[in-house]
Amino acid sequence: MLKITPHLGILVIIVSIAGLWFPLLGYFLLVVFATLMITSIFRGRWFCGNLCPRGSFNDFWIGKITRNKKIPGFLRSFWIRIPLFAMMMGFMGYRLLSTEGVINQIGMVFVIMCLMTTSIAIVAGISISPRTWCTFCPMGTVQNLIGGTRYQLQMDNSKCVSCKKCDKSCPMQLEVHANERKPDCIKCGRCITACPTKALTFNT
Ligand code: SF4
Ligand code: SF4
Ligand code: SF4
Fold it and tell me: Is the CB of 164 within 6 Å of ligand 3?
């Protein structure tokens, strides 16, 4: 992760709360959407583990008060994620059309969307695990679909001692030690740091 990553969570509070009085803050979400779309082409879900304000918020704010339970497997299923993506895009499209192009109202649509999704992320993060929302977040799903095969984690089998410290360090609760593609890896690098034998690297 980047040095700035732990500090980005404050932006979630600023947009979700201050945005109710200053709707133009909602346009920050467009910057987020554009950035994650571009980075996903080259690095899959790298944005989620390094630049996403809500990802940072989940890890470093919710992480302090979570119950840290296992994330239910069905939440990773595309049978859940694709319909949720379609529903949220449809809802946002409907709300945007009803603004009739008024700049402040458009900003408010983004602010409300941020507030709603942040509320779900907080409840899921506290009651299950900090990154629960990130297993089915529509923006995470988009990055998975665009660049899920890019910038994959590689394991040197000859160095692995099967300690599974990598699994325990993974905020997405992936089976890191299983040497297979991980399209939902958010490229945070925590497993690499946790591995005592330096068996893990990213395939550039
Ligand atoms: S899954 Fe969504 S909320 Fe989580 S880090 Fe990625 S874009 Fe941000
Ligand atoms: S597999 Fe490693 S880099 Fe990927 S999300 Fe898990 S800990 Fe982070
Ligand atoms: S932490 Fe390293 S050595 Fe341990 S299981 Fe994971 S890859 Fe293997």
Answer: yes
